[in-house]
Amino acid sequence: ARPLVIAVDGPAAAGKGTLAKALAAKLGLPYLDTGLLYRAVARRMVNAGLDPAGDASVEAQALQQQDLARSDLRVPEIDRGASLVAAQPAVRAALLDRQRVFASETGAVVDGRDIGTVVFPDADVKFFITASPRTRALRRHRQVAGETPLEGSALDAAVSEIVARDARDSSRETAPLVQAADAVLIETDGLSAAEVLDKAGEIVALHHTRR
Ligand code: C5P
Protein backbone atom coordinates (compact mmCIF):
# COMPACT_ATOMS: atom_id res chain seq x y z
CA ALA A 1 0.00 0.00 0.00
CA ARG A 2 1.19 3.54 -0.59
CA PRO A 3 2.32 5.40 2.49
CA LEU A 4 -0.26 7.17 4.63
CA VAL A 5 -0.48 10.95 4.22
CA ILE A 6 -2.53 12.95 6.71
CA ALA A 7 -3.25 16.62 6.03
CA VAL A 8 -3.87 19.00 8.94
CA ASP A 9 -4.96 22.49 7.85
CA GLY A 10 -6.48 25.47 9.60
CA PRO A 11 -5.87 29.04 10.77
CA ALA A 12 -3.07 30.22 13.06
CA ALA A 13 -2.85 28.81 16.60
CA ALA A 14 -5.91 26.56 16.28
CA GLY A 15 -3.96 23.55 17.58
CA LYS A 16 -2.83 22.09 14.24
CA GLY A 17 0.79 21.69 15.26
CA THR A 18 -0.06 20.09 18.60
CA LEU A 19 -2.43 17.64 16.93
CA ALA A 20 -0.18 16.86 13.95
CA LYS A 21 2.84 16.19 16.17
CA ALA A 22 0.88 13.91 18.52
CA LEU A 23 -0.80 12.09 15.64
CA ALA A 24 2.57 11.53 13.95
CA ALA A 25 4.02 10.07 17.16
CA LYS A 26 0.97 7.85 17.65
CA LEU A 27 1.09 6.53 14.08
CA GLY A 28 4.89 6.33 13.80
CA LEU A 29 4.98 8.78 10.91
CA PRO A 30 7.26 11.75 10.31
CA TYR A 31 5.80 15.19 11.01
CA LEU A 32 6.22 18.16 8.67
CA ASP A 33 5.38 21.69 9.82
CA THR A 34 5.12 23.54 6.49
CA GLY A 35 4.67 26.92 8.19
CA LEU A 36 8.37 26.71 9.03
CA LEU A 37 9.23 26.83 5.32
CA TYR A 38 7.37 30.13 4.87
CA ARG A 39 8.81 31.42 8.13
CA ALA A 40 12.35 30.57 6.97
CA VAL A 41 11.79 32.50 3.71
CA ALA A 42 10.52 35.51 5.69
CA ARG A 43 13.51 35.25 8.03
CA ARG A 44 15.90 35.38 5.04
CA MET A 45 14.14 38.51 3.74
CA VAL A 46 14.27 40.26 7.10
CA ASN A 47 17.91 39.30 7.70
CA ALA A 48 18.82 40.67 4.26
CA GLY A 49 17.12 43.96 5.16
CA LEU A 50 14.29 43.32 2.66
CA ASP A 51 10.56 43.91 3.17
CA PRO A 52 8.76 40.50 3.17
CA ALA A 53 5.99 42.11 1.10
CA GLY A 54 8.54 42.40 -1.75
CA ASP A 55 9.59 39.66 -4.21
CA ALA A 56 10.86 36.70 -2.15
CA SER A 57 11.35 34.21 -4.98
CA VAL A 58 15.17 34.24 -4.72
CA GLU A 59 15.01 33.53 -0.99
CA ALA A 60 12.50 30.70 -1.53
CA GLN A 61 14.75 29.12 -4.18
CA ALA A 62 17.75 29.43 -1.90
CA LEU A 63 15.85 27.54 0.79
CA GLN A 64 15.58 24.40 -1.36
CA GLN A 65 18.93 22.97 -0.39
CA GLN A 66 19.15 24.30 3.09
CA ASP A 67 18.29 22.87 6.48
CA LEU A 68 15.69 24.89 8.32
CA ALA A 69 17.24 26.96 11.06
CA ARG A 70 14.63 26.63 13.75
CA SER A 71 15.65 29.63 15.76
CA ASP A 72 13.95 33.00 15.59
CA LEU A 73 11.12 31.75 13.41
CA ARG A 74 8.28 32.13 15.92
CA VAL A 75 8.36 35.83 16.63
CA PRO A 76 5.60 38.34 15.70
CA GLU A 77 7.67 39.98 12.95
CA ILE A 78 8.01 36.58 11.26
CA ASP A 79 4.32 35.61 11.86
CA ARG A 80 3.48 38.59 9.72
CA GLY A 81 6.39 38.21 7.28
CA ALA A 82 5.55 34.55 6.60
CA SER A 83 1.98 35.37 5.62
CA LEU A 84 3.31 38.10 3.27
CA VAL A 85 5.80 35.84 1.45
CA ALA A 86 3.21 33.02 1.44
CA ALA A 87 0.89 35.14 -0.72
CA GLN A 88 3.47 35.08 -3.54
CA PRO A 89 2.84 32.36 -6.17
CA ALA A 90 6.57 32.01 -6.99
CA VAL A 91 7.36 31.35 -3.33
CA ARG A 92 4.65 28.68 -3.04
CA ALA A 93 5.78 27.02 -6.28
CA ALA A 94 9.39 26.88 -5.08
CA LEU A 95 8.39 25.13 -1.84
CA LEU A 96 5.96 22.59 -3.34
CA ASP A 97 8.46 19.88 -4.32
CA ARG A 98 10.19 19.91 -1.00
CA GLN A 99 6.88 19.22 0.76
CA ARG A 100 5.91 16.40 -1.61
CA VAL A 101 9.30 14.71 -1.51
CA PHE A 102 9.22 14.73 2.28
CA ALA A 103 6.11 12.54 2.41
CA SER A 104 6.55 10.46 -0.73
CA GLU A 105 8.61 7.57 0.66
CA THR A 106 7.46 7.16 4.23
CA GLY A 107 4.16 9.01 4.39
CA ALA A 108 3.75 11.86 6.87
CA VAL A 109 1.47 14.00 8.95
CA VAL A 110 1.71 17.45 7.34
CA ASP A 111 0.34 20.66 8.81
CA GLY A 112 -0.27 23.95 7.01
CA ARG A 113 -2.94 25.91 5.17
CA ASP A 114 -3.19 24.25 1.73
CA ILE A 115 -2.09 20.68 2.43
CA GLY A 116 -5.44 19.01 1.71
CA THR A 117 -6.32 21.37 -1.15
CA VAL A 118 -3.04 21.84 -3.08
CA VAL A 119 0.00 20.00 -1.74
CA PHE A 120 -1.66 16.60 -1.14
CA PRO A 121 -5.14 16.71 -2.68
CA ASP A 122 -5.14 12.87 -2.47
CA ALA A 123 -4.22 12.72 1.22
CA ASP A 124 -5.73 9.68 2.97
CA VAL A 125 -7.26 11.71 5.77
CA LYS A 126 -7.74 15.49 5.90
CA PHE A 127 -8.45 17.54 8.98
CA PHE A 128 -9.47 21.19 9.22
CA ILE A 129 -8.71 22.40 12.73
CA THR A 130 -10.13 25.69 13.95
CA ALA A 131 -11.14 27.69 17.03
CA SER A 132 -12.45 31.19 17.73
CA PRO A 133 -9.94 34.08 17.30
CA ARG A 134 -10.08 34.73 21.06
CA THR A 135 -9.21 31.12 21.96
CA ARG A 136 -6.40 31.16 19.43
CA ALA A 137 -4.96 34.48 20.64
CA LEU A 138 -4.96 33.19 24.23
CA ARG A 139 -3.29 29.91 23.22
CA ARG A 140 -0.61 31.63 21.18
CA HIS A 141 0.07 33.99 24.08
CA ARG A 142 0.37 31.08 26.52
CA GLN A 143 2.90 29.40 24.21
CA VAL A 144 5.18 32.41 24.18
CA ALA A 145 4.50 34.06 27.55
CA GLY A 146 3.49 31.19 29.83
CA GLU A 147 1.03 32.10 32.56
CA THR A 148 1.35 35.88 32.25
CA PRO A 149 -2.28 37.00 31.79
CA LEU A 150 -3.50 38.47 28.52
CA GLU A 151 -6.45 40.83 28.93
CA GLY A 152 -7.90 44.22 28.06
CA SER A 153 -6.30 46.09 25.17
CA ALA A 154 -3.40 43.62 24.86
CA LEU A 155 -5.93 40.81 24.30
CA ASP A 156 -7.81 42.99 21.78
CA ALA A 157 -4.54 43.65 19.90
CA ALA A 158 -3.64 39.95 19.84
CA VAL A 159 -7.10 39.05 18.51
CA SER A 160 -6.84 41.75 15.79
CA GLU A 161 -3.41 40.46 14.74
CA ILE A 162 -4.75 36.92 14.38
CA VAL A 163 -7.84 38.09 12.48
CA ALA A 164 -5.60 40.11 10.11
CA ARG A 165 -3.36 37.10 9.46
CA ASP A 166 -6.41 34.85 8.82
CA ALA A 167 -7.75 37.44 6.38
CA ARG A 168 -4.44 37.56 4.48
CA ASP A 169 -4.24 33.75 4.37
CA SER A 170 -7.89 33.29 3.34
CA SER A 171 -8.18 36.05 0.75
CA ARG A 172 -4.99 35.47 -1.24
CA GLU A 173 -5.41 34.20 -4.80
CA THR A 174 -2.90 31.36 -4.66
CA ALA A 175 -3.68 28.43 -2.35
CA PRO A 176 -5.88 30.35 0.09
CA LEU A 177 -6.72 28.92 3.49
CA VAL A 178 -9.97 27.06 2.85
CA GLN A 179 -11.42 23.81 4.14
CA ALA A 180 -11.15 21.01 1.55
CA ALA A 181 -14.54 19.53 0.60
CA ASP A 182 -13.48 16.15 2.00
CA ALA A 183 -11.80 17.44 5.18
CA VAL A 184 -13.10 16.59 8.64
CA LEU A 185 -13.75 19.75 10.68
CA ILE A 186 -12.69 19.81 14.33
CA GLU A 187 -13.48 22.92 16.39
CA THR A 188 -11.11 22.93 19.33
CA ASP A 189 -12.65 25.62 21.60
CA GLY A 190 -13.02 24.04 25.01
CA LEU A 191 -11.22 20.82 24.03
CA SER A 192 -7.93 19.70 25.52
CA ALA A 193 -5.09 18.55 23.26
CA ALA A 194 -5.79 14.97 24.38
CA GLU A 195 -9.47 15.26 23.42
CA VAL A 196 -8.58 16.60 19.97
CA LEU A 197 -6.10 13.75 19.50
CA ASP A 198 -8.78 11.19 20.50
CA LYS A 199 -11.26 12.55 17.97
CA ALA A 200 -8.69 12.64 15.18
CA GLY A 201 -7.36 9.19 16.11
CA GLU A 202 -10.88 7.72 15.79
CA ILE A 203 -11.24 9.18 12.32
CA VAL A 204 -7.88 7.79 11.20
CA ALA A 205 -8.82 4.37 12.60
CA LEU A 206 -12.08 4.48 10.65
CA HIS A 207 -10.11 5.20 7.49
CA HIS A 208 -7.90 2.15 8.18
CA THR A 209 -10.85 -0.20 8.48
CA ARG A 210 -12.15 1.08 5.13
CA ARG A 211 -8.84 0.67 3.25
O1 C5P B 1 1.51 27.69 10.54
P1 C5P B 1 2.30 28.94 10.76
O2 C5P B 1 1.62 29.96 11.61
O3 C5P B 1 3.70 28.65 11.22
O4 C5P B 1 2.45 29.57 9.30
C1 C5P B 1 2.98 30.84 9.10
C2 C5P B 1 2.40 31.45 7.83
O5 C5P B 1 2.85 30.69 6.70
C3 C5P B 1 0.87 31.40 7.74
O6 C5P B 1 0.26 32.56 8.28
C4 C5P B 1 0.62 31.30 6.25
O7 C5P B 1 0.57 32.57 5.66
C5 C5P B 1 1.83 30.59 5.72
N1 C5P B 1 1.59 29.19 5.39
C6 C5P B 1 1.01 28.91 4.18
N2 C5P B 1 0.82 27.62 3.79
C7 C5P B 1 1.20 26.61 4.58
C8 C5P B 1 1.77 26.87 5.84
C9 C5P B 1 1.93 28.18 6.23
O8 C5P B 1 0.65 29.81 3.45
N3 C5P B 1 1.03 25.36 4.15
From TrEMBL:
<keyword id="KW-0418">Kinase</keyword>
<dbReference type="InterPro" id="IPR011994">
    <property type="entry name" value="Cytidylate_kinase_dom"/>
</dbReference>
<comment type="similarity">
    <text>Belongs to the cytidylate kinase family. Type 1 subfamily.</text>
</comment>
<feature type="domain" description="Cytidylate kinase">
    <location>
        <begin position="6"/>
        <end position="203"/>
    </location>
</feature>
<dbReference type="Pfam" id="PF02224">
    <property type="entry name" value="Cytidylate_kin"/>
</dbReference>
<feature type="binding site">
    <location>
        <begin position="10"/>
        <end position="18"/>
    </location>
    <ligand>
        <name>ATP</name>
    </ligand>
</feature>
<keyword id="KW-0808">Transferase</keyword>
<dbReference type="InterPro" id="IPR027417">
    <property type="entry name" value="P-loop_NTPase"/>
</dbReference>
<dbReference type="GO" id="GO:0016301">
    <property type="term" value="F:kinase activity"/>
</dbReference>
<dbReference type="InterPro" id="IPR003136">
    <property type="entry name" value="Cytidylate_kin"/>
</dbReference>
<protein>
    <recommendedName>
        <fullName>Cytidylate kinase</fullName>
        <ecNumber>2.7.4.25</ecNumber>
    </recommendedName>
</protein>
<keyword id="KW-0963">Cytoplasm</keyword>
<keyword id="KW-0067">ATP-binding</keyword>
<keyword id="KW-0547">Nucleotide-binding</keyword>
